[in-house]
Automatic annotation (TrEMBL), chains A, B:
It comes from the Bacteria. PROSITE patterns: HTH_TETR_2. It comes from Rhodococcus koreensis. Signal peptide: none annotated. The keyword Transcription applies. This is DNA-binding transcriptional regulator, AcrR family. GO terms for molecular function: DNA-binding transcription factor activity; transcription cis-regulatory region binding. PANTHER family: HTH-TYPE TRANSCRIPTIONAL REGULATOR RUTR, TETR-FAMILY TRANSCRIPTIONAL REGULATOR. Keywords: DNA-binding, Transcription, Transcription regulation.
Amino acid sequence: MSSDSVPTRRTGGRSALVIAAVRDAVEDLIAESGADKVTVPAVAARAGVSPSSIYRRWGDVGSLVAEVATLRLDPDRPLPDTGNIGDDLRAWARELYGHLARPTKASLLRASAVLADDGETNCLASRRDEAERLVERAHAHGQFTPSVRQIMDHLVAPIIYRITFEPDTVDAGFPETLVAELDRITETG
Amino acid sequence: MSSDSVPTRRTGGRSALVIAAVRDAVEDLIAESGADKVTVPAVAARAGVSPSSIYRRWGDVGSLVAEVATLRLDPDRPLPDTGNIGDDLRAWARELYGHLARPTKASLLRASAVLADDGETNCLASRRDEAERLVERAHAHGQFTPSVRQIMDHLVAPIIYRITFEPDTVDAGFPETLVAELDRITETG
């Protein structure tokens, strides 16, 4: 990386490099060995930094994994905006599913489950925020929608549950099926 | 414990005591500090056995936690049998929820999420088996039911998801709501 060869007085530059290296190391190690095998010394060795610099910044391995999970489980993209809540939800669910089903992301998701124990992380809070935005926009256009609670329970929950606990049962058409079923729950009459 | 003072030639007796003590220690430690803090030395100290006897029998802490999760996450009770699939599912969901929402069980559930990574555990396979039995019995009585897949996705998944990732959002009436919504998905016409 060229920044390595350009000494600078801004400690922010060096610090940002360390942070990036440490986060990459966490993701690599989780992908290789699973989240329960990630330790501060292993992350330090992989990132080429001292364990003490990790303890100083993050406290313990749990906080570090929580931070990486929160950052990396967030698909970085604009929300779908098709003008129809059903199509928006379909695109949104497909994207969420495609993102989280990748092996590294699935491992991070499982790791973050353990951390939810202490309220250390809620890496899925952004999904709830997104569902709220989709619903609010549709309401503003006069559309009838499922509630945010129903979207979380019948669309997000089954996706997360399958990826986390029953990874062998997932298939590509799954988000479509869920959106059709969510539609049956909310249809009037 | 009286067995301690009665020497016996059956090593099974001694061995069973060790196994029980180790499993209890795992559950206690998870309840106290969370699953990510459980280590073989800590379990050994709590159970009053040597770490090497744990490594010998279980291999590593992951396998040990997986075993305890599989045993303890299983509510030990007969399946509801009301003669009506809707009532059966309501009773079943309420029981599952009541069992898993207890703090120790919720922590075990989160711990088992990490282990699902290596296919080391699927502590929820019994839930799928139970759903299959409920559905088969109702079919034998000529009743129309949701599919097992729908029961897992719209009843079990939201319960597990909320307990695992959003423990602050659960309330006692939640299983009832889900069963009513599952009913809307499957109702004909």
